[in-house]
Specification:
Largest sheet: 8 strands, parallel, barrel
Helix content: 25-40%
Strand content: 15-25%
Order of helices and strands: EHHHEHHEHHEHHEEHHHEEEHEHEEEH
Number of strands: 13
Low-confidence stretches: none
Bound molecules: beta-D-glucopyranose
CATH superfamily: Glycosidases
Distance between the termini: 14 Å
Strand order of the largest sheet: 1-2-3-4-5-7-10-11
CATH architecture: Alpha-Beta Barrel
Amino acid sequence: MTRFPDGFAWGVATSAYQIEGAAAEDGRGPSIWDTFCQRPGAVRDGQTGDIAADHYHRWPEDLDLMAELGITAYRFSLAWPRIQPPGSGPASAAGLDFYDRLTDALLARGITPMPTLYHWDLPQPLEDQGGWMARDTAYRLAEYASLAAQRLADRIGLWITLNEPFVVTALGYALGTHAPGRELMLAALPAAHHQLLGHGLAAAALRAAGVARVAITNNYSPAWPASRSEADLTAAAAYDAVQNRLCTDPLLLGSYPGLAAFGAGPDGPGCVRDGDLAVIAAPVDALGVNYYRPVRVAAATGSPLPFREEPIPGFPVTAFGWPVVPAGLTELLTTLRDRYGDRLPPIYITENGCSVTDEPAADGSIDDQPRIGYLDGHIRAVADAITAGVDVRGYLTWTLMDNFEWAEGFGQRFGLVHVDFESQRRTPKASFRWYRDLIAAQRG
Ligand code: BGC
């Protein structure tokens, strides 16, 4: 493995709803995921994040695992329904106390805290008022940002506003496979704009409260056309426009990509007001990049969407069925650099990882060689991008430990640490030791 630059951040990422549990403790209010999990058929086997990996109670043990791993940065998310249960009004002291303790405990272990404000757990009362389809939710995010920053600002290395606003728009509001489960199809575009506006307003609120470095995280998938036919090339460009550009062009270029293929007019989402794009495009200090896989795209007919996904032959697949294509990460990073040039801020890989069917052997050990292969390939792909001149400052794998994988419930295991969800016993997998050794070699 090549040597990464000095100061390169090595870490893991998690999110509140996926690990914390304690859904009704210390005044936490319901989020859209609590509600969605109650909907029959929404989540595999009717599972919920009520207990998840019980991190809310077991966090000291989890932080010890992080210290053993030797990471220098930890990306976690703050639960909005813990900090401000109604989604407006004053903060809950108990909610802030939890993240205050966590932050201090990370710093005591030499780990830089990288919180995400919003990783999908919108307070239910805000959804009842329209959720991300309502412009007001953007202002609520900024208010919540200020409450959180007033308590934590001085101790945070890099503050991420949103996780994957496109995924929230597509799965939560267009297709309805994630919370809040709305099926608005092409009419969901305002949810993207309101999240981006919320990002811009929240970034300003964070800075006003003294946060030094602000970022946003998007999910990217290189769009590979299924053939060289005109129809497939057009379909791949349309996919690229929503998946890769809808939530990045406004941030870095101050304009939306053309969305005519989605029936959108010249302002894209159809709800953009004067001045919004300037708020959204205020410079950020870093861009968070989540990468899991490329997507092969073909033209679709008879569907509201102008494209469909096809399997990519010739690559191994994860337990989720996602193709393992490390070179896709190098391609993505160099494409971002070529597309945005000197407007592209430094990049952190804020998520990258894979699900594996990790059944413990008779002696309890978990030999997850496919995960080691995945991580090794993708970390090398980051090194290739750095060699090609892309400014990447850190790599945070998804994820520390097995967790509640959204609509898949506990069915997909992405962790370096195995969690037995009956006993909550944590068992580091072979990949944990592999990553620990890699970090030690890089830091040594
Ligand atoms: C999300 C994570 C999720 C992971 C794997 C990312 O899009 O940010 O919360 O667990 O993908 O599906």
